[in-house]
Amino acid sequence: MPDQKRYEEFVDLLQRASGQVLAYINALLLNWDDAEDVFQESCVVLWRKFDDYRPGTNFTAWALRIAQNKVMDFQKARSRHRAVFSPDLQSMLLTEIARPEDADPDGLDALSDCMERLNDADRRLAQLCYGEGMRVSEVAARLNRSPQSVHNSLRRIRGVLLECIERSVEREERP
């Protein structure tokens, strides 16, 4: 049986961080069911590794790094057939979200705003691939495009999102 005090400390820290961690996972996967599954797996890892956590440090940032690893594991398992966010965009989101607990908890506003700024066709393509989890070949067939064309569009969309998020973060950091 785990130490009751240590268990309560873990539950308290996880409760405070869970919203940001789940939002981060969902932002990367854009599929709520997948995000919940990866979140649960992340929580198990967090508990198993809780002895590695250094009290007094930013638990949320630590939890987000573990969640990022679980997302990458999940995406790697599906990467042969599905489009995934680039590691650069994942890192940018992690940096944006892994703020101290007293900072703005809405780290995903920039991604949401940037997604809204995409034209309808790009937003729909991103939703099909990332939100609905369709394979690139399925999206290509549905849109009567070649798989390479879809891959190229997704690469461009990820670049546009990364630049947009970087600009948003820079604006927020200016006094």
In words, what does this structure look like?
The protein has two domains: 4-102, Rna Polymerase Sigma Factor, Chain: A (Orthogonal Bundle), CATH 1.10.1740.10; 107-173, Arc Repressor Mutant, subunit A, CATH 1.10.10.10. Helix content is 74%, strand content 0%. It has helices spanning 4-29, 32-48, 59-78, 87-97, 109-117, 120-131, 136-143, 147-173. It starts with a helix and ends with a helix.
- Strand-residue fraction? under 5%
Structural class: mainly alpha
**Tally of structural domains:** 2
User: What is the total tally of β strands?
Assistant: 0
CATH superfamily of the largest domain: RNA polymerase sigma factor, region 2, helix turn helix motif
**The CATH topology of the largest domain, please?**
Rna Polymerase Sigma Factor, Chain: A
Radius of gyration: 18 Å
Main beta sheet strand tally, sense and closure: none
What is the CATH C-level name of the largest domain? Mainly Alpha
Name the shape in a single word.
globular
The mean pLDDT is 78
Low-confidence segments, given as residue ranges, are 100-107
Query: How far from one another are the termini?
Result: 50 Å
The helicity comes to over 70%
Individual helix count: 8
Architecture per CATH nomenclature, i.e. the level-2 architecture of the largest domain = Orthogonal Bundle
N-to-C series of helices and strands: HHHHHHHH
Keywords summarizing the entry:
175 residues, mainly alpha, Rna Polymerase Sigma Factor, Chain: A, Arc Repressor Mutant, subunit A, 2 domains, 8 helices, globular
